[in-house]
Batch of 2 targets.
Target 1
Amino acid sequence: MVFHSQKNVFWQAFILAAFVFALGILFGFVMENSRSASIEKLYFQSELDLLDIRIQNDIYSIENIKIDCLGAVQENIKFADRIYEEAKLLDKYEQANKITGNIILQHKKYDLLRTLFWINSIKIKNRCNASYHNLVYFYDYNEPSIEIRAKQAVFSRILSELKEEFGSEVMLIPIAGDNDIISVELLMNSYEIAESELPVILIDEKTKVQEIESKEEIIGLIKK
């Protein structure tokens, strides 16, 4: 009788464990689908933004066209804040998923978008004498070593703190520097940034930073 009772307890425990295991798999499947759907939505939005900013780039390239500087600067700041938030969200999603060829390809769209945004920011700043600062963060995306990962974690934390503190005064533009994008490589070369040097922060198209320990160091360079 005791043996029969123990057998029942065993089967009850087994069924409960199987149920919990199946529930965990189902929950993981739902979460994975939810993340995939969110990433797809971000990528679709990035395609629209990419087209929009390409048109803006063409408009700012027309020398004799009149530009509403106040409106251009405000819209540029709003766009910068949005792609900054999207960059944080995308990074969170990518960390939760296995990096595949498709994700790398989609990530290139964001690199192109941010690169075009950077070019627009330079044009607006020059034409409208805007006072914001461009901080372009070139990082190693595909196969960073453990040492580089640790260094980039420090860079990301410091730049995030800086963005939170200074808000619209800073255009924080993260761009993967090793994604085989010709336009990015051309810009890196023009500012003498080698892929082997990543991560690198470029401040106002003038100052190249490869080592930092605090946001105060960046603040000091901005205020020079």
Target 2
Amino acid sequence: MIRDPAKFDCLLTQVRQFIHAECIPCEREVDESDEIPERIVDRMRALGLFGHSIPQAYGGAGLTTEELALVNLEVSQAAPAFRARFGGNTGIASESLVADGTPEQKQRYLPGLASGETTGCFALTETGAGSDATALSTKAEKNGDHYVITGAKRYITNAPIASLFTVFARSDPASRGASGISAFLIEKGTPGLDAGPACRKMGQHGSPVGEVILNQCRVPASAIIGGAAGQGFRTAMKALNKQRINLAGLCIGPAIRLVDEMVREARRRRQFDRVIAEFQMIQRMIAQSNTEVHAARALLLETARRRDQGADVTMEASMCKLFASEMCGRVADRAVQVFGGGGYMAGSPAEQFYRDVRLFRLYEGTSQIHLVNIARRTIALAEKGRP
């Protein structure tokens, strides 16, 4: 659903120019320093990148699912760390508020998230609660009109730099599974909340990931998203379902970039007195990659349009994330092969993206978890007599 094609084309052009003129030339600096320069972050704020999916009433652009998918195809053609810097605000870190927040919570937090003044993070994962997110052990004990939260989260994107934490904890000690989990909005500086230093990672340097430690962290009951305890897991699933569509776009963008890099290298590099683009095996890798990119893009846009129409796309969102992340991994592997030994050397775009995109098959649900979810939903639909 493109609401105003002319206006949206201008936005895409602006984003594309920023990515190619300012972010891509800075990739190696970010990879080596593990930090995005503040001048780039300021440009992100000026361009409104932090608020693309946040409603216009709160200072965002209010992009539809399809519009956001097309933007994600552009922004992710630079190294993933760039989009990760603002992506939490315009994705998983704000979606819980947009979907289920009270009017007061939205007014208090969404404008800051939209402007980039506030950096948000989504603190769900724990040591024993990753794929099985309902197994979280972080507890929120009721104490008068407050809750006291104790536990630890890990692998949380932007935690070391976040100023607003969406923390999921079990508020009903008698509950099991998805029931009894609440989502809390906790501001940086709240006593008992500590975000550890950024962890060292294989790739996506410049995108800080760390732990969130909660030690008797006392917050008012009004900090619960939506104001009702026990609804946190439902809120998390709403955020994740949309984010999986977003993430599919973020997997396709790097693959688009890598196809371009493969073609450029194949036309430059010579073996046996010929450019390697003339060899059929090289052509096959390029053709396979470009075909898979187009297939993933078509699946993404179809799913985004159906979501904009109000359809339940829970299964299709899983399909998008699964197919696009696996596809991106295959394309990255072929890119290294086309670059040859140079593709294994630091400083090569093939080498960097090979490291960076490996994470896509792990977060927002591993490929194996998505296969299970897709199978279960497919069988359930068949039992109901639906295709």
